[in-house]
Specification:
With about 270 residues, the protein is an alpha+beta fold. It is built from eight helices and twelve strands.
Length: about 270
């Protein structure tokens, strides 16, 4: 079975220059019509990818020069396919992600030079950094903040229990509408079948701690991190390492921003995107 046909309700459409995988009941014609006639709003763009909203969908497509794109997509095709496969896998395991609707590869004769993935747009959702900022700005009490962090920790535990590891588990890659249900995005950074060892756990905890430590102190964040540890972990050893690694991570990020001529920003300096 083709790895991209990762559930029984995926249709494969093949032409000379492209292969299209669509989740039923979406049809290739419906997909083409909406992509053709909907207004596109760019959400994020880099040298490698372009992400834009079209109607009720988000499209993430490769954005490389042709020769580089040809080499990357041909020889690292499984890396590019990871988001589509991971999204279906996680949803089967009860982990929330935007619904993956279609995946397209451009190429022929065994060569690939582009791809695009279409997913559900999470209307009225915000990333958890912005959601927390809004809670703090509204004067939310300790119980409300703890409830938010508890639900978030439970969502992360569901992800890790699914035998999956998100390489970039920062707050900007977790979305929520209500602070109770959480959706993981950028799932092309999810590795399936990776043993969740302490090195990986530490990396995720540092990413999450770094997302929130500008707004919340350790009286809130230590219980949050504790909920994502096993009984075998010694919190007296774990938390100092989280703090040291986060400080070093932040230092490197700020050094890079200075080299790029960007202003140093902290979460508490930026109003939430609504």
């Amino acid at each position: 079975m083709n790895a991209l046909c990762c559930t029984s309700n995926i249709d494969k459409t093949k032409s000379f220059l492209r292969r299209l995988y669509t989740l039923q009941p979406l049809s290739p014609n419906d997909l083409r019509e909406q992509l053709k006639h909907s207004k596109n709003v760019v959400l994020k763009e880099s040298a490698k990818t372009r992400v834009y909203k079209t109607g009720e969908w988000v499209v993430k497509e490769s954005n490389s020069a042709f020769l580089k794109g040809l080499l990357r997509h041909t020889f690292a095709r499984n890396r590019y396919r990871r988001g589509w496969i991971a999204a279906h896998y996680l949803r089967k395991k009860g982990v929330l992600t935007p619904e993956p609707l279609a995946y397209m590869e451009k190429g022929c004769l065994g060569l690939l030079w582009g791809n695009a993935m279409v997913s559900e747009y999470l209307d009225e959702a915000r990333n958890v950094e912005d959601f927390l900022y809004a809670l703090v700005q509204r004067g939310a009490g300790k119980d409300t903040l703890q409830n938010f962090l508890t639900h978030l920790a439970q969502a992360v535990n569901t992800l890790t229990a699914a035998d999956a590891y998100h390489e970039d588990l920062s707050g900007k890659n977790i979305f929520t509408r209500d602070g109770v249900r959480f959706y993981f995005i950028d799932v092309d950074a999810v590795v399936i079948g990776q043993p969740y060892d302490d090195e990986i756990r530490m990396r995720n905890h540092v990413q999450l701690y770094d997302s929130f430590c500008d707004l919340l102190n350790d009286a809130m964040l230590v219980p949050f991190i504790t909920q994502m540890l096993t009984p075998q972990h010694d919190l007296r050893v774990w938390m100092p390492q989280v703090r040291r690694t986060q400080a070093e991570r932040r230092r490197k990020v700020e050094e890079r921003w200075l080299k790029e001529g960007k202003a140093i920003r902290h979460m508490s300096d930026t109003p939430p995107s609504l």
